[in-house]
Amino acid sequence: MKKKNPLTLYLLADGARPDVFKRLLEEGRLPNIQREILEKGTFRTATSCFPTTTGPAYLPMLYGGFPGTLDVPGIRWFDKKEFRRKRFGKFAARTYVGPEAGYFSDDVKAGNPCIHELFDRPFNIFSMLTKGVPEANDLGAKGKAWMYFRAHYFFVHQPVDEEAHKRMMAGLDLDPEFFFVVFPCIDWNSHHFHPEHEETIKSYEYLDFSVGQVVEKLKKLGRWEETLLIITSDHGLTQTHTHLDLADFLRSKGLKTLAHPNIFTLSPDAAVMISGNSFGSIHLLKNGSDDILRGDEVQAAMGIEVFEALIARPEVDFVAWRGVENEYWVASEQGRARILQQGGLMYEPVTGDPFGFGKMDRPLNHQEALAATFDSKYPDALVQIEQLFSSRRAGDLVVSANPGYDLRDFWEIPEHHGSHGSLHREHMMVPFLYNQQGWDDRPARTVDIFNTILKWMGKEEREASEGRALC
Ligand SMILES: [Zn+2]
User: Fold this and answer.
1) Ligand 1 centre from 320 Cα, in Å?
2) How far is the CA of 15 from the centre of ligand 1 (A)?
């Protein structure tokens, strides 16, 4: 039956882990979510995208694509071609941590509409992806810079979630059609304390309180029956005990390295861009070329010894780079393997099996490749490596850190005690809750949510999206 005035309310619990979510539900500490969403709804998990970092990991839900495919492959990125063309140009190096956050929406590859643009009355609170949201509907904008500054430097976190809640409650009176609300505190408290710290748990409980209030209000407004309420996060998070500064590591090996905040390094040999902080891209500049490097060129440009030393570091889980044609390489202390794209994705251990998948010699489509790896230590690894390297901004080589470690040292003020960004399952798996039952129970990605929302709202699905509707 056609819905009269449907609403999608999307609560993005930034950094929420599915296992913590599940445990709190079992302990009865999230009673409103249990009663209002799950009694007639669904709790499941989904995979996020690589790198699992705030901002780029919102792209699957809001743009229906992956960070690599959409050309925003990290919270920081570097473009060798632009760097050669115009050294200090706007498109040579980017960090969305700070004032450049305003460029985010415009950096997304043209021709990919943001979900807000597909609705008449989109509303947003605190997402940095606001394309298509009329100024009056961007309810998080007022005072956001100050609130975020205060949270970042003085650890005044919880008022930001409270503000998100208050503004959402007020926004419901404005007849929203699509409403995206970010609750950032689980992420912040996980970074500042750790993912299971009591302060972090309080942020889950606040989200639960907010759900109770919002559902009560939607019932009063007579809209609850036609509301799709979704809760997900954008990545998991793990506790961090040791930092390796990837840029300093390269410097210690004699490579003059450009990295934020020192992006004015003269004649650099390499650039390092960190996201999350368990993901890093390395851009090799020594040979003067503006092309991305492939195959053996990567080790040659970096120096074989530096390359081997990097893989041997305890902080480094694996590194990956492009092969010569339609292939990608992955290396860790377990040895090397390659991913092949030949009418589908295959995986072949060569000197070892870094992902632990064994030989996968039948070409798999994207859904099959997800199903085959969903329960593994590296869920969706084949598709994620492929999508990431479709962007030249992703660099010549990417580094994924082991849980417990990250790749950026003292520049991070305050010091981080929690990290994400890697392809490890602890960062890739997110909770996925909604007040509906009977949807397709195939392994899901957050990118599937984009077309799911469009379909549920009675809109046409976008063929170009990398996800498929679940409803
Ligand atoms: Zn996040």
Assistant:
1) 23
2) 5
Give per-residue pLDDT as tens, 196-244. 899 999 999 999 999 999 999 999 999 999 999 999 999 998 888 888 8
Six token digits for residue 296: 């053996």
Confidence of residue 267 (pLDDT cuts 50, 70, 90): confident
The answer to whether residues 330 and 339 touch, using CB atoms and an 8 Å cutoff, is: yes
Q: How does DSSP assign 8-32, residue by residue?
A: EEEEEETT--HHHHHHHHHTT--HH
Gap between the Cα atoms of 369 and 357, Å rounded = 11
Long-range contacts of 447-450 (CB under 8 A, 24+ apart): 447/49, 447/60, 447/61, 447/64, 447/65, 447/66, 448/46, 449/46, 449/60, 449/61, 449/230, 449/232, 450/60, 450/61, 450/62, 450/63, 450/64, 450/115
pLDDT tens across 320-338, in order?
999 999 999 999 999 999 9
Computed on alpha carbons and rounded to an integer, the radius of gyration of the chain in Å comes to: 22
For the chain, helix, strand, coil in percent to 5 are 35, 20, 45
Task: Tell whether domain 7-72+108-237+424-456 is in CATH 3.40.720.10.
Answer: yes
Would you say residue 410 has pLDDT above 70?
no
Token pair, residue 263, equals 């992006």
**What distance in angstroms lies between residue 161's CA and the mean position of ligand 1's atoms?**
14
Q: Angle of helix 18-26 relative to helix 198-220, nearest 10 degrees?
A: 70
Global confidence as pTM: 0.95
CB 260 within 8 A of CB 95: yes
Residue 187 Cα to ligand 1 middle (Å) = 6
Read off the amino acid at residue 62.
Answer: L
How far is the centre of ligand 1, averaged over its atoms, from the C-alpha of 314 (Å)? 25
Distance 193 CA to ligand 1 centre (A): 15
Instruction: Output the six-digit token pair for 279.
Output: 């993901």
Distance (angstroms) between ligand 1 centre and the Cα of 305 equals 35
Calculate how far, in angstroms, residue 308's C-alpha sits from the geometric centre of ligand 1. 31
What is residue 50's DSSP assignment? S
Number of residues written out for the chain:
471
CA 236 to centroid of ligand 1, rounded, Å: 8
The single-letter DSSP state of residue 277 is: B
How far, in Å, is the centroid of ligand 1 from the Cα of 350?
35
Ligand 1 centroid to Cα of residue 448, in Å, is: 18
Sequence ranges of the domains in the chain = 7-72+108-237+424-456, 242-418
